[in-house]
Amino acid sequence: MYKGNAKLTRQNEKKAKYSKLLVLTVIILSMILLISVLSFKAMTEKEIYYKDIEIKNGQTLWQIAESEFGSDSNIRKYVYQIKQINNLNDSNLSPGQIIKVPIEKEV
């Protein structure tokens, strides 16, 4: 009976070693993944600068956002950003008014 218990103890020790190895492997792979994601993000950081635009007669924020960012982009998001940057309460624009438009540039 003693030999059976010793065999079980060795099996349990092996299982414990494999479990520790598995946990260590998962931790290392997680760290590698995290570092990869962070370094990729750092490589694709964008710098924001502002472009002054003089409003022409009949021009709308929607038209400006569409011409600056493309019709494929989220125009509502850009209209909202332009309104925030320029402290506009509504979308009314006057000819000759100068507004700032955010432009993202990859660094």
Low-confidence stretches: none
Radius of gyration: 29 Å
Rounded mean pLDDT score? 85
Helix content: 55-70%
End-to-end Cα distance, whole Å, is 71 Å
Order of helices and strands: HEHHE
Strand order of the largest sheet: 1-2
Task: Please count the beta strands (DSSP E, at least 2 residues each).
Answer: 2
- Tally of domains: 2
Give the CATH topology of the largest domain: Membrane-bound Lytic Murein Transglycosylase D, Chain A
Q: How much of the sequence is in beta strands?
A: 15-25%
- Class computed from helices, strands and strand pairing: alpha+beta
Biggest sheet layout:
2 strands, antiparallel
Question: Can you tell me the CATH class of the largest domain?
Answer: Alpha Beta
Task: Report on this structure.
- The chain is an alpha+beta fold.
- It folds into two domains: 1-44; 46-106, Membrane-bound Lytic Murein Transglycosylase D, Chain A, CATH 3.10.350.
- The protein has helices at residues 2-43, 61-69, 75-85; strands at residues 46-54, 98-106.
- The protein has a two-stranded antiparallel sheet.
Write the layout of secondary structure elements.
Elements: H1 2-43, E1 46-54, H2 61-69, H3 75-85, E2 98-106
Antiparallel strand pairs: 1-2
Helix pairs in contact: 2-3
Pick out its properties.
single chain; 107 residues; alpha+beta; Membrane-bound Lytic Murein Transglycosylase D, Chain A; 2 domains; two-stranded antiparallel ribbon; 3 helices; 17% strand
